[in-house]
Design goal:
The chain is mostly beta strands. It is about 10% helix and about 35% strand. The two termini are about 15 Å apart.
């Protein structure tokens, strides 16, 4: 459907004319890639103050497997929170339902969208029919002139966070298996992560991939505290009060500790404090690749990956 604005329309509904630029932008974003007729929501209901639903587009939002859950879309208004439905993302980046069918738009009668304040995107249990949003909020954003720009509720200043890890094994003494441990500390024992404190909704978590196998390293809130796991350290000496681990014992199936961490991949993610899963979330804060031939004492600089966090745009119609 092509929306045309006549001079009569503009004279009768002046607010509609002022929004013509926004309508053209929305139409362009909704053009299908395969040459199908465009699906453009009529601007007339919004011009009259009768908002019926929203169109949502997302960037870098990943597909969720069933065991992780499904996305939930919520609208917060002046007097209620309305549920617009669940969705997932297909391999083309489009919003789809549980069966893989495209969702061109979301509608609701649970909340007055004309009074909408913000949008919330959560991760819910796959087969659930939630009545309230879970605490696992992946994106959110306020409405302004009928458009909400969504981003992850991340700690302030995390985009400029920096850090490094040092290859060493402090818990079994000096000069012993030094290439089999990694800690967020320098040679003088100072913490090396320059990061903001974790939020009420998210906690930092470390993962390392040794010989291609994912190994959980534990969670932490600030740079100068021991993480929650330390499952593989020795007990000869206490671990330093920073995130990290020595991979010396209790080796998981398929791995043999002590080892040499050369060739491993290290990531630090933001994980929700509720509905968390063993596998890493898509919110990767830091990433690093450890070079081959480690001997111990090497400093591994972390790469900030927050520019890859998902974003979204929601339009009222």
């Amino acid at each position: 459907m092509v929306v045309r604005l006549s001079s009569a329309n503009r004279y009768t509904f002046p607010s509609l004319a002022r929004r013509a630029g926004s309508i053209v932008l929305l139409a362009a974003m909704l053009l299908p890639a395969c040459g199908d007729p465009p699906v453009v929501p009529s601007p007339l209901p919004r011009a009259l103050g009768d908002v019926r639903g929203v169109v949502a587009t997302f960037e870098r939002l990943v597909t969720l497997p069933q065991e992780v859950g499904i996305y939930g879309l919520w609208i917060s208004s002046t007097d209620a929170i309305g549920f617009l439905g669940t969705f997932n993302i297909n391999e083309s980046g489009q919003t789809v339902d549980r069966d893989g069918n495209l969702i061109p738009r979301f509608t609701t009668y649970d909340v007055n969208l004309a009074k909408a304040l913000s949008v919330i995107v959560t991760i819910e249990l796959f087969n659930s029919n939630p009545e309230t949003p879970s605490g696992n909020v992946i994106m959110q954003g306020p409405f302004s002139e009928g458009v909400a720009q969504l981003s992850s509720p991340i700690p302030n200043q995390i985009q400029s966070a920096t850090g490094s890890y040092r290859v060493q094994t402090p818990t079994d003494g000096p000069d012993s298996n030094e290439a089999s441990g990694i800690w967020a500390i320098d040679s003088e024992g100072n913490p090396t992560l320059d990061i903001p404190e974790a939020t009420a909704g998210y906690v930092y978590e470390q993962f390392i991939y040794i010989e291609g196998r994912e190994v959980l390293m534990g969670q932490f809130n600030v740079a100068d505290e021991l993480d929650t796991l330390n499952a593989y350290v020795d007990d000869l000496f206490p671990p330093p009060e920073v995130p990290g681990d020595d991979f010396l014992r209790n080796d998981p199936a398929g791995l043999d500790f002590p080892t040499n961490l050369g060739g491993s991949r290290l990531i630090i993610t933001l994980e929700p404090r509720v509905l968390d899963h063993i596998q890493p979330s898509q919110l990767v804060v830091f990433e690093a690749f450890l070079p081959l031939g480690l001997v111990g004492g090497e400093t591994i600089t972390l790469i900030n990956r927050t520019a890859d966090f998902p974003t979204g745009t929601v339009f009222q119609f």
